[in-house]
Amino acid sequence: MRLPVFSSKFTPNAVLVVLINFSAVYARTATSEADEAQITDPVEECTAYYYAPVTDALDGFPTIWQPATIVSNDTEAQNIWANISQSVPTNILPHGDIYGDWNDTSYNVAEDPDCWWTKSLCTTPKLSTLPADVASIPEPETMGYGFDDGPNCSHNAFYDYLLEQNQKATMFFIGSNVLDWPYEAMRAIDEGHEICAHTWSHHYMTGFSSEDAFAELYYSMKAIKLVLGVTPTCWRPPFGDVDDRIRAIAEGLGLQTIIWQYDSFDWEEQSGNITAAQVYTNYDNFIARAENGTFNTEGSIMLTHELNNFTMQTAVTYYPKLKDTFKYLVPVGVALNKTQPYVETNYSLPTFDEYISGNVTTNSSSSSSSSSNSTSSSTSQSSSADVPLIQTISSVLLASITLGILMLAV
């Protein structure tokens, strides 16, 4: 199967100017998630549309695709940050800037005092109050299957393929993308995929001040809550850029950090930094490791993306090979037996044993509606999901304080 061709340059950075204007310019009318899922023309898929719940709430968010700061009149965010900030280490300073420019070469990589993944691949925090990152899968011969940078506006053919294969995945959604493409986000959760946060604007997290790093996570969670009605409990740092300061902020928000062991580098093909052939080699090498028994006692995670036509087409091309090589392909949460993936209790994931026996979804609440006025009977309208974000986060924070947990987990 081949996906419809869409520009390989369609990335958050490449279309930043267009996306920023989505709140003011709408070229078409979209009435439901189901209607959006039927579109086969990628250009039409990626034409901006109006969705009232998002438009009405934009004043409560930072500017879409701009680095996040706490919105000036957002007292909920300010209060949550005031509580969390007390547990964030102040002796760990920002590294470089949010664009990944690390001119300071003074960091001691050998000692790695901050457990800075970008420099050392450290996944076990130096701060004892923080849990380890998830970088592998406890189930042998198993791949934690997932994709970063969604929801991509042109993902219909890709999601159709996953649906045909009855394959669920962990989708790491960027907050700005969720507000730009709400119906596309709804499709993911309604079809049983696990949703995790991937920050608000997809920058290097250790370059942010602590307050702004909090805003990146908080508003990505708030966007997912607004559109999908659920509050995620997992996240992945863009580029894997995380240290104990950022982990502490994430832990305070109830977010588990998920990294990876292997990188397909599919995301770099669009920039020209590597070739498609090199990406295919990375996939082949990962498969070869599985074939030679590398994952016989513990499964693995490879970084792949819902970023553009190339990354999604490559995922489709290699899916049969991964399926044949690994005993199981499952969402990360399933591999961890994390049956409650969100703060709200109206949605659950199957256990690993349930999933591999064929029960790939449990208690999935629909977030779609065919209402002609673009309103959605989303998951957020169910009684269990009506809990305001500040209440759900505050509950997590209170539990953390009660248990004596002082730092955040990614």
From TrEMBL:
Its EC number is 3.5.1.41. Residues 1-27 form the signal peptide. GO terms for cellular component: plasma membrane; side of membrane. CDD domains: CE4_MrCDA_like. GO terms for molecular function: chitin deacetylase activity; metal ion binding. SUPFAM superfamilies: Glycoside hydrolase/deacetylase. Its cofactor is Co(2+). Residues 363-383 are annotated as: Disordered. GO terms for biological process: cell wall organization; chitin catabolic process; fungal-type cell wall biogenesis; polysaccharide catabolic process. It is a lipid-anchor; GPI-anchor. InterPro entries: Glyco_hydro/deAcase_b/a-brl, NODB_dom, Polysacc_deacetylase_ArnD. It catalyses: [(1->4)-N-acetyl-beta-D-glucosaminyl](n) + n H2O = chitosan + n acetate. Belongs to the polysaccharide deacetylase family. This is chitin deacetylase. It comes from Lentinula guzmanii.
